[in-house]
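quick one
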Amino acid sequence: MRHTPSCRYFRPDPVPAEVLHRVLDNARFASSGGNRQGWRLVVVTDPDLRAAVADLHRRQWDAYIVHAREGVVGYQGDGSGKKMEHGTAYATRRLNRTDEFSARLHEVPVLLVCYVELATLAVTDSQLDRPSVVGGGSLYTLIQNVLLGCTAEGLGSALTTLLAAEQPSVDELLGTPPGYALGALVAVGWPEPDKQYRRLSRKPVEEIAFTDQWGRPFTR
Ligand SMILES: Cc1cc2nc3c(=O)[nH]c(=O)nc-3n(C[C@H](O)[C@H](O)[C@H](O)COP(=O)(O)O)c2cc1C
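structure w/ flavin mononucleotide:
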């Protein structure tokens, strides 16, 4: 968990199907609502398909980065209409790395296109006056396991979600039937060793977990 950064730089060497199969064979034990396991992945290794998927991803990324370079990455998910600011040196460095990643996405040997079957989701927060978050819970548990499994195999991985906005075109490329939501694109390959982050930067427990009452830090 502490050693699974988003890998932005990959070697072009192929990933043996056996290794990837082992990752998925472990990842499938993730939790899902009612154990319905509505997740479905398309393992894209064909170079032409990878190029087409990467083009679609780039279309979204190129629109996104215009705003990000202006210091704004989008609007907060709380419905407040507030813009989400972006501008620290760390954020700029990450943005530059992700820009290179997007430009070279077609070279990454494996692109996992991740779907979830809509009929398996019980979206328990759909009636609230805010964006729903629950449905994704039955896809991203599997994906986090995939990321961890890749690390265990020495593979790098990167979870991205921009491709979701291109779902109709992606479905056409991959022959996806109706009834599935595209939730993520996970890039997988052997990391370029010199260009990886060694240490992840995350908030401390005391900032993200509370004791009994909101705002009272959870401590040992
Ligand atoms: C829901 C979700 C969506 C994400 N979407 C993207 C994305 O579209 N493109 C991308 O390059 N990274 C994406 N990421 C990866 C994050 O940017 C990355 O985990 C974060 O910047 C921390 O980087 P690190 O894990 O290397 O420390 C996403 C991560 C999550 C959990």
